[in-house]
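ok, trying the design again with the full structure, not the truncated one.
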């Protein structure tokens, strides 16, 4: 039987430094706003509600109170992103620039342990294996291809224990998630994982369920009424102290204006009791309702944290990148800025009380939700040590704030942007633009950004552009004309998958350099009238397809995938290089002898003391869906490649590369175990069963 794979699933800032810029070229006026608002978005305080697997033989773990220091002190990979701040930095150098060419594949581990196949030999599972391991106490932990936790020996990849499938074979089907959270109070260690509609607590030594957590070791996350969507997520639980915080994933393009909110929930890591709920769309009496005209907050929904949380355990703060409100391309039913959609919000981990926030997009229409974990960093600004947090965005910005107060590190300008011609829509007149760092990818579907490899290709690109509405960043979506000679929507650059995206960035604690992978990938933001039989929205999304350029080339200039190094102490770009070869052998440009043009995959980075590791992203994409029939798959958004590389982090030079059997699907990690450094990454696609691949020196 062939395997069938399943698809993977401020303007009101408390402290703002806002500069208003005007298109007419007149001098910009600096308006410093210091708002000491005491009103907070108060959390809801709900009442309390209601197989034979091998056992690990582990010694008692040592208490390590500060999660942010574990990776640096022990060589372990303490959390999904190395630490609670999601820096993706490992201060290791056994594998370095001098010996990287000696690295070899040490072991491989399948994405689903063979003992699960004893329950069902024909079990289907996703080839898009997005997980990354956590290594604590000499054991690796990772969700497998169906979302159950497997523990393994970090030195050999051999199984230590596997989580029992709830209900046996019937409970085996599931989707992979990105990772687990690890809790250690000095005497007890737990693995916390979200799978489907449940949050599980497992004994880190044995994998057995913690019976005192929730009901028989799990908590039901289906807190929405039955008539709404089923809970789903694929992120990583965030543990701060004794509280575990959970997001959720929801459709941004819901069929009606009424929808359920994507509220953030926190649970007691010991008992599983609900501790607090944060309303991502404010409710009656809460701060932010004034940004929703005509009480549209009362019926509007979604705006979840579908991406990843970050935290500063010392400050007791959790940083939440909140997504789009429904509908993400038309907002005539939710006029106003719509807090807290498309915002970075810092809350007290114990209570869920909002401490500060900043909205990165007002009245979102572009699917420009903050897609990546905020990165917690300590930087030096003109000789002053600053506790900062940086948010990577799809539109190609790095928003940087004092993580204690929310004050921007560098001025953020409110600039005028294009307005919408869609009936009923009222766009925000301005959007926030950071003054530093500069954008890390191309912005705007403009003539200047079109390919110009040859005059003929430029003319053909202009002809394609003329069929659509186009313009600078934040040009709104537009109605697709029924007239074939009319415009067919708005070309949006960056598209709905960036710019930056869920892969985030990596931050080097020692140098202050941020490494940001991104793609130059447009899409068509088209609207069509809503059919009253199916929706009460005046307009809904169209096909939202990717768009190619002339003769099977991309429409815009390269690189199509890139890495940008940014000095976060100054906000200056240090270097930028294409990531991947790209269409250099296309007949129309082969004679130009390009070395690299980049590929539009979305790989996650890993930085060590001397090296930057990154793949090219998944190779799962196939024709159909959002990929037009005449668009070569290799130039389509999210189409990566099989090569995994080590770059010189000082200048972006390639020091080592290996072609694997499939593209990288999960974030690479690095750790020391028994005196040996390992680089570990997940790969897989529809033609190659997903697995973990471990690299070591001989």
């Amino acid at each position: 039987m062939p395997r069938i794979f399943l698809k993977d699933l401020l303007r009101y800032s408390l402290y703002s430094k806002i500069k208003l810029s005007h298109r007419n070229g007149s001098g910009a006026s600096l308006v410093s706003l210091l708002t000491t608002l005491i009103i907070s978005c108060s959390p809801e305080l709900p009442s309390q509600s209601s197989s034979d697997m091998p056992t690990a033989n582990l010694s008692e773990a040592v208490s390590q109170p500060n999660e942010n220091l574990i990776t640096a002190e022990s060589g372990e990979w303490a959390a999904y992103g190395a630490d609670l701040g999601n820096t993706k930095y490992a201060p290791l150098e056994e594998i370095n620039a001098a010996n990287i060419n000696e690295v070899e594949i040490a072991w491989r581990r399948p994405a689903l342990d063979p003992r699960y196949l004893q329950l069902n030999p024909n079990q289907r599972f996703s080839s898009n294996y997005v997980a990354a391991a956590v290594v604590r106490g000499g054991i690796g932990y990772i969700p497998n291809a169906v979302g159950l936790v497997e523990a393994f020996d970090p030195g050999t990849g051999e199984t230590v224990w596997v989580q029992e499938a709830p209900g046996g074979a019937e409970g085996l089907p599931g989707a992979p998630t990105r990772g687990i959270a690890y809790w250690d109070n000095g005497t007890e260690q737990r693995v916390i994982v979200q799978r489907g509609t449940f949050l599980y607590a497992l004994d880190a030594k044995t994998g057995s369920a913690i019976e005192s957590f929730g009901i028989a070791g799990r908590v039901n996350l289906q807190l929405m009424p039955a008539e709404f969507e089923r809970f789903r997520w694929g992120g990583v639980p965030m543990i701060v102290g004794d509280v575990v915080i959970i997001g959720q994933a929801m459709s941004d393009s819901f069929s009606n204006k009424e929808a359920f909110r994507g509220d953030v929930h926190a649970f007691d890591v010991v008992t599983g009791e609900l501790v607090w709920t944060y309303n991502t769309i404010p409710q009656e009496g809460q701060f932010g309702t004034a940004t929703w005209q005509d009480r549209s907050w009362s019926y509007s929904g979604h705006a979840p944290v579908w991406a990843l949380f970050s935290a500063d355990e010392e400050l007791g703060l959790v940083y939440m990148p909140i997504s789009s409100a429904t509908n993400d391309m038309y907002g005539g039913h939710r006029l106003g800025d719509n807090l807290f959609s498309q915002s970075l919000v810092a809350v007290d981990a114990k209570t869920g009380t909002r401490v500060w926030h900043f909205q990165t997009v007002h009245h979102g229409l572009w699917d420009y939700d903050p897609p990546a974990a905020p990165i917690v960093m300590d930087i030096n600004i003109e000789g002053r040590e600053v506790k900062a947090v940086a948010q990577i965005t799809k539109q190609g910005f790095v928003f940087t704030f004092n993580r204690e107060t929310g004050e921007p590190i560098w001025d953020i300008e409110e600039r005028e942007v294009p307005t919408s011609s869609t009936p009923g829509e009222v766009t925000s007149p301005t959007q926030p633009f950071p003054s530093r760092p500069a954008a890390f990818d191309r912005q705007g579907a403009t003539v200047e950004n079109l390919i110009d490899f040859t005059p003929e290709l430029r003319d053909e690109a202009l002809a394609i552009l003329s069929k659509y509405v186009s313009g600078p960043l934040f040009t709104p979506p537009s109605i697709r004309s029924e007239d074939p000679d009319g415009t067919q929507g708005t070309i949006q650059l960056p598209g709905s998958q960036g710019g930056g995206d869920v892969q985030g960035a990596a931050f080097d604690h020692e140098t202050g350099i941020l490494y940001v992978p991104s793609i130059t990938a447009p899409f068509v933001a088209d609207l069509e009238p809503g059919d009253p039989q199916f929706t009460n929205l005046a307009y809904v999304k169209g096909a939202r397809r990717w768009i190619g350029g002339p003769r099977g080339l991309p429409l815009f200039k390269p690189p199509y995938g890139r890495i940008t190094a940014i000095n976060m102490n100054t906000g200056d770009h240090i270097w930028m290089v294409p990531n991947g070869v790209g269409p250099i052998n296309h007949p129309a440009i082969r004679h130009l002898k390009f070395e690299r043009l980049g590929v539009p995959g979305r790989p996650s980075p890993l930085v060590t003391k001397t090296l930057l590791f990154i793949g090219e992203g998944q190779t799962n994409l196939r024709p159909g869906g959002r990929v037009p029939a005449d668009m070569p798959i290799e130039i389509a958004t999210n189409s990566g490649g099989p090569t995994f590389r080590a770059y010189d982090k000082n200048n972006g030079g390639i020091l080592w590369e290996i072609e694997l059997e499939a593209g990288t699907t999960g974030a690479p990690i690095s750790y020391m175990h028994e005196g040996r450094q390992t680089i570990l990454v997940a790969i897989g696609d529809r033609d190659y069963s997903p697995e973990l691949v471990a690299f070591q020196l001989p």
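Keeping the full-length input from now on. The mean pLDDT is 90.
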